[in-house]
Structure formats: C-alpha cells, structure tokens
TrEMBL record, chain A:
This is Immediate early response gene 5 protein. Residues 141-150, 189-199 have a biased composition (Basic and acidic residues). Pfam families: IER. Residues 60-122, 141-300 are annotated as: Disordered. Residues 216-227 have a biased composition (Gly residues). It comes from Lynx pardinus. Residues 72-83 have a biased composition (Low complexity).
UniProtKB/TrEMBL annotation, chain B:
InterPro entries: PP2A_PR55, PP2A_PR55_CS, WD40/YVTN_repeat-like_dom_sf, WD40_repeat_dom_sf, WD40_rpt. This is Serine/threonine-protein phosphatase 2A 55 kDa regulatory subunit B. SMART domains: WD40 (SM00320). Keywords: Repeat, WD repeat.
Length: 319, 499
C-alpha cells in the first residue's frame, strides 16, 4: 500500500521533471531524462502491480507482496520490460511476467519499448477500452522513440507517456476535441481506437507517419497515422496476451491520468509522437523542439476514462 | 616531463614519495597517511573571477592581497560565477577553472622566493578570458549554454600553454602566452601607432625589443565545432599529444589537433530505434600511456575499455567492467545511483576509478567482474534518495581524482564536504571547504556526519546538511599534495601541512 502511494508520488514528480525539462536552458538533457523515465517506469510498475485492482489507494495488505518483486523486475533484464505492465489482475500472473522481460523482443538489443505490448489489456470485456490500453501500452514505447529522437534527449518517457502515447497513436483527436471517444469518430480507417483489439494490423506505411500530426496544436490537427513506423513487433504482441478484464481498470486509471496530462501539458508532449517513418525521425536529432510541435495525445475514449479519475490523476492535474 | 615524474612517484612500494620534504628525506609526520587528521591546511581561497580580474587589471593592487583578504566576502554568487570544472596542468604550475558563464580563469603558482617562503604554494590569477559565449541554434530552436564542461591541458611543448575547453557543443583550443617585450622604433609608425608621412622619414632605424609589463594573452587557436548532436560531457587528450577525443551522450569523436573540420567517430551507441535507448555515455578518458586505449562509462554503471586498433568503430568493447547489482539495495532509484558520473585512469594506467552517486570504486583493468575497492562516500543518503530525487540532487555529477602516486583518492559530497580515501591504510577523512575555516594556513578539522542516535559535539546530522553546497569538482596537483576544491563560486586550495 505504501508502495503504491510512494510510486504514485514518484510518478507525479517524474512527470513534473519531464515537463520542466522542456524549458531548461541548454536544451533537453538526454541523460537526465533517460534516468527520470527509468524511475517512472519502475514506479509505474509498482503502481500497477497492485494485485487488488480498483483499490488504488486503499489496497489491502495484499499489495506489499507485489512491490518487492516489482523493483526487481526492471532490473531483471534490459529495459525490455519497459512497457510491460505486470498482470494487474493477479499476483499469480506476476511471476510469469518476471521471467518474461526479454521474451517479447530480442533480448540481445534491449528493446526499451518494442517488446511488451499492452499485455494485460486485450479484447476481453470492454473491447474499446482494451483497444485503448493496447494503444497505450504499445504506443508507450513508440512515444519514447520520437521523444528520444528529439535532440537533447527528451529521453525515454516510459510510464505515463505510454497511455497517452497510445491515444495519439491511434490518431484520434484528444478528448478535448469533444469527440465521442473511440467508439465513433475515428477518422482513420485503420485507427486502432476503433474496437478491434484482436486485429493484427501491419504498421502504417511510413508515409502516414505521425509527422503530420506534428503540425497541429493541442487537441487538433488531422489524425496522424497509426503505428508511427515503430516496431511491427508490437502488434502481434499486443494481441497475443489476454488478460482478464480486471486489468483494464488499472489501465484505465493510467489512461485517465494521461487524459489529464494531455490537457495540462498541452502540446508539450506532442513531440513524443513525432516519429518519422523508417527512423527518419531519429535522424532529425536536432528537432528537440518536438515537444512544442504536434498535438498532444489524441485520446480516443476520454469520456469513459475520465469517469474514473482517481487521486492519481488529480495529482497529475496539479502539474 | 610530468608523465615521467608521475611514474616515478608510482613505484608502488614507496608511498612516502610524495610526502618527502624538499630535502628528500622522509619527514616523520609523513609516515601517517596523507589524509590523516590535521594534515591539510588552507593555502588560499580564490574568489569569484570577475572580482579578481577586475581588480588586478584595473587597479594596481597586489592580487595576492585580494586573494587572501576576505574583504570582498560576497555572500551571494551569480550563477555565471559557479565553477564548473577545475584542472591542474601537467606540472601543477597552472590551475585552470571554467565557470558557468563561459569564462576560463587560470591561476599560477607563486614562485618560491627566499623573502616570502610562506607564500609558496599560493595561486594567483594568471589569465582570464571568455572561452565560450551563449549561442542559439536557430535550426533546432535550442540555446547552447556557454558553461564550460571540461578543461584539459596539453603538455607543454614550448613557451606557450595550450588547453582545451568545451561547452555542450564546441571544443576550443586556447593558447595562453606571455608577452614581456614589445618592439619599439618602427620607421613607418610613430610611437602611438599612427602612420608617419613617408616624406618626413629621413633616417632608418632598426626596431628593438624593449621590456614591458608582463601581459598574458589567450588566443583561440582552433575551434572544433558541429560534431556533436548531444551534449559533450568529456574531453581527453591522448598520450600521443596529437589527438584527443570528445564524448557526448551517445557518441565519441576522435580529433586531430590540427584539423578542425573533421573528426572520426569511434564510438556510437545510438540505437537505430531511439525507443531502444537504454544507456548513455557519461564519461570517457584515454589511457595515460597507451594511445590506442580508452575507456568510457555509461549511465548503467558499466565501463567499457576499447582498443582503437581493433576496428575503426569501437562499438565492441575489448573489456567490459560491471559489478552485479546487489538485489537487497534495489529501489526506485537504483538505476540513477548506479549511473557513473566520472571515470579516471590512475597515473600508472593500471587502475580506473569510477564515481557513482554514493560510492567510489577502483577497478583493476585485469579484472572485469567487480571492482577491487569500493568506498562509501555518503551512504547515509541511501535512505533519502526520494527527497534527493525531488530536489534534483540525485542527478548531481560528482568527479573523483587520484593523487600523484595513486595512493589516495578524493571526491566531493554535500555541505561543502569532500572526502579522501587512502587506499593503502584504508583510512578516510571528511573535510570541509567553508568560509568559516578560511583563515589562511588554518588547519582543516575532519568532519563527521552523524547518521543516527546521539549526535556528538561537532558532528553534523544528516538532516542539517546543506544540499545546495556541493563539491562536484576537485583537482589534485600531479606531484604534490596540493588540492583545489571548487565550492560554488569559490576555489579553495589546500596543501599538506608537511612543508
């Protein structure tokens, strides 16, 4: 329980640091942001490892069991465990994920984001949400990609960026746009926020990169393509794991706070999405002003998620 | 040559070497460890460069007086005056500091003189110049800080001194030279420099050099720019004195001093997919004797040794130093505190020393799986990592230094404390660089941090440490027991009492 509170607090602090790094003199520091994102990831995993979903801050004694494992997990291997949320639904599932870190992607090159999909959340139950969360998880790393590509290293923004990134990824406009959530209104045919959690989409062609999204401001702009050319591995992964619907609540909480993040930070994190096709984005190393461009996460299903705003989100809102 | 001197000192068996009095016979006091209690005294405290340089150049005041007086005891320090790097040259005669304002100030050691024996060992301002200016990269909408990240001296090869200074993006080679004569008696110019009417010249004379007041001038001889996309964190001069390397977060480039428009990329750890980024380069250094060998440290707590003979791109290391993590110490911040902030070869070239947030480790090049020595710098902070994360102190990059004989290592901490560890006797001492102890020749009293329980008199509790006063940069004279400690905008010079 305490771990959860602690993790919550750390996530808030980390996000604040990432936000402040935008305005630092001298450009965004890659090293510091990388470290902050690692902390964010650890804290996020602790937070999500609560075996009692739904009891965010009132977890019973059951939770302490998870955290000790949690911290170990990120260290377990290369950041392949990055976006891999532990199975929220059950502690039992936890040990499974632990040995997993390297599975999804090649262990050899640590795949910070490529591997883990939104494991716990899949088509079960609320298909829509599942889809979102998958987006969240999958795009999580994608988000890191362009972020790091950003000169000066906006760094790897694991954690909270993930869900937010997911939104963007699917190209749906953010909740602020007053779109009725992912259910409808996704302008793009291949937008994942449409309830197709089980589909295995190939990555969008490079031409449809999120780059286009980059031009728009907060909450606006044409939806970029899905899959900003990031690893195709994510797709199969995303759909390969099925978790009980209970997991979704965890993820929702995540996405809920992401929604707030978007509205708070405005366009500041839009650069996260700007990942050029075929790594071209990475070449644009100088474009660390990514954060300033592009619209922020396009939240597919803001409304249903926002309903679940919890104290975590509130904390983020404070930023 | 400074290098030879250092080798002599490192004879391994005779650690009394650097402790000898000038006559060459070991003084009894020197049998104690160099970092024993009461053996360090303050030589001088050097003030904010602007004040010193203004005074020395505009007013005819003995700069020595300024340096030793505390009349200009400013309690504030502008951000630009914060010292960001300190480095002795190879003989120890000169001490260079760089600050956040892009200035370099060079201090020179007072020459020994019969009249003022007690003044030996003091350093006075020798030269001040603006090395880097703030720049703006219009293409990326980025401001480039003028803060000097590192200064490295080149060994002296003629009358002039050369040093490299770098900010986040650009490395510059500066030549610092003295001028104490000027030509007089030109034919075409008069004494003020005005051109004379050739019609008025009736005789010719040969210009002669006449003595003038000593003037030290610094000129930029080379500018090595546009080679780094990320922030430069280290530069290191190779032992061949023809090349040097500059390292940023993801790449290391090899330069030739004569060529400024190209450099070789020798290490590139940028992943093809930036999402896969897991570590960055935090420091790099050439081996002191083998010009083909260098090491670089990473944010993951690992050190890689590379041999440039193996291939053009040294992405594959020759040796890989990593200590397995202690799982019992795992926390949210384990990754941050394991990030190495500094790596230094010993003068002998046999060992490397690394500094991470809480410890200093000495590694033997021949053993990759763990360090041979680990010293806890301020382990009492381990329980405070969360607060230190909040106030950003956990990201502080402390440096570490060897003494001339590689027997003592030194590094900084908070509250203006710095620590020395004697590798042979395993004794350590904590000293403080503060204004309160700033009487010249005052003996430094060892400090102690109380970690819990009863606090003894003179001990400081962890909670009353001032985390805004940190010693990140220190330097040790290459052959003598003289250390320079940078505390915000003050530079303290301490000397071993035996003298």
């Amino acid at each position: 329980m305490e771990f959860k509170l602690e993790a919550h607090r750390i996530v808030s602090i980390s996000l604040g640091k990432i936000y402040n790094s935008r305005v630092q003199r001298g450009g965004i520091k890659l090293h510091k942001n990388l470290l902050v994102s690692l902390v964010l990831r650890s804290a996020r995993q602790v937070y999500l490892s609560d075996p009692c979903p739904g009891l965010y801050l009132a977890g019973p004694a059951g939770s302490p069991a998870a955290p000790p494992q949690q911290p170990g997990e990120p260290a377990a291997g290369p950041p392949a465990g990055w976006g891999e949320p532990p199975p929220p639904a059950a502690c039992a599932a936890w040990p499974e994920t632990e040995p997993q870190p390297e599975r999804p992607a090649d262990p050899a090159p640590p795949r910070v984001g490529a591997a883990e999909p939104a494991a716990p959340v899949t088509g079960a139950g609320d298909a829509l949400r599942a889809g979102e969360v998958e987006e969240a998880e999958a795009a999580w790393r994608r988000v890191e990609g362009p972020r790091e590509a950003a000169e000066g290293g906006a760094g790897v923004f694991a954690g909270a960026e993930g869900p937010r990134g997911a939104r963007r990824h699917c190209g749906c406009p953010p909740g602020g746009e007053d779109r009725p959530g992912a259910l409808g209104a996704c302008p793009r045919v291949d937008c994942r926020c449409a309830p197709r959690p089980a589909e295995d989409e190939p990555p969008a062609p490079p031409a449809v990169g999120p780059r286009k999204r980059g031009a728009a401001g907060v909450g606006g702009g044409p939806a970029g393509g899905p899959a900003p050319g990031s690893s195709p591995l994510k797709k199969p992964r995303r759909n390969s794991e099925e978790q009980p619907g209970g997991a979704e609540e965890e993820e929702e909480m995540e996405t809920g706070n992401v929604a707030n993040l978007i509205s708070i930070f405005g366009s500041s994190f839009s650069g996260l999405l700007r990942k050029s096709p075929g790594g071209g984005r990475e070449e644009a190393e100088g474009e660390e002003s990514g954060p300033e461009a592009a619209e922020p996460g396009q939240i597919c299903c803001d409304k249903p998620v926002l309903r679940d705003i919890n104290p975590w989100s509130t904390a983020i809102v404070a930023f | 040559m400074a290098l030879n001197q250092a080798s002599q000192l490192y004879s391994g068996s005779d650690r009394l070497g650097p402790w000898c009095s000038p006559t060459g016979s070991p003084a009894p006091l020197s049998c104690e460890t160099g970092c024993g209690e009461g053996s360090w005294i303050l030589v001088c405290r050097l003030l904010v460069p602007t004040q010193v340089s203004l005074l020395s150049m505009e007013e005819d005041i003995d700069t020595r007086k300024i340096n030793n007086s505390f009349l200009r005891d400013h309690s504030y320090a502008t951000e630009a005056d914060i010292i960001s790097t300190v480095e002795f040259n190879h003989t120890g005669e000169l001490l260079a500091t760089g600050d956040k304002g892009g200035r370099v100030v060079i201090f020179q050691r007072e020459q020994e003189s019969k009249n003022q024996v007690h003044r030996r060992g003091e350093y006075n301002v020798y030269s001040t110049f603006q090395s880097h200016e703030p720049e703006f990269d219009y293409l990326k909408s980025l401001e480039i800080e003028e803060k000097i990240n590192k200064i490295r001296w080149l060994p002296q090869q003629n009358a002039a001194y050369f040093l490299l200074s770098t900010n986040d993006k650009t490395v510059k080679l500066w030549k610092v030279s003295e001028r104490d004569k000027r030509p007089e008696g030109y034919n075409l110019k008069d004494e003020e420099g005005r051109l004379r009417d050739p019609a008025t010249i009736t005789t010719l004379r040969v210009p002669v050099l006449r003595p003038m007041d000593l003037m030290v001038e610094a000129t930029p001889r080379r500018v090595f720019a546009n080679a780094h996309t990320y922030h430069i964190n280290s530069i290191s001069v190779n032992s061949d004195y023809e090349t040097y390397m500059s390292a940023d977060d993801l790449r290391i480039n090899l330069w030739n001093f004569e060529i400024t428009n190209q450099s070789f990329n020798i290490v590139d750890i940028k992943p093809a997919n930036m999402e896969e980024l897991t570590e960055v380069i935090t420091a790099a250094e050439f081996h002191p004797h083998h010009c083909n060998t260098f090491v670089y440290s990473s944010s993951k707590g690992t050190i890689r040794l590379c041999d440039m003979r193996a291939s053009a791109l040294c992405d594959r290391h020759t040796k890989f130093f990593e200590e397995p993590e202690d799982p019992s110490n795992r926390s949210f911040f384990s990754e941050i505190i394991s990030s190495i902030s500094d790596v230094k070869f010993s003068h002998s070239g046999r060992y490397i020393m690394t500094r991470d947030y809480l410890t200093v480790k000495v590694w033997d090049l021949n053993m990759e799986n763990r360090p041979i020595e680990t010293y806890q710098v301020h382990d009492y902070l381990r329980s405070k990592l969360c607060s230190l994360y909040e106030n950003d102190c956990i990201f502080d990059k402390f440096e570490c230094v060897w003494n001339g004989s590689d027997s003592v290592i030194m590094t900084g901490s908070y509250n203006n404390f710095f620590r020395m560890f004697d590798r042979n006797t395993k004794r350590d001492v904590t000293l403080e660089a503060s204004r309160e102890n700033s009487k010249p020749r005052a003996i430094l009293k060892p400090r102690k941090v109380c970690v819990g329980g009863k606090r003894r008199k003179d001990e400081i509790s962890v909670d009353s440490l001032d985390f805004s006063k940190k010693i990140l940069h220190t330097a040790w004279h290459p052959s003598e027991n003289i250390i320079a400690v940078a505390a915000t905008n003050n530079l303290y010079i301490f000397q071993d009492k035996v003298n």
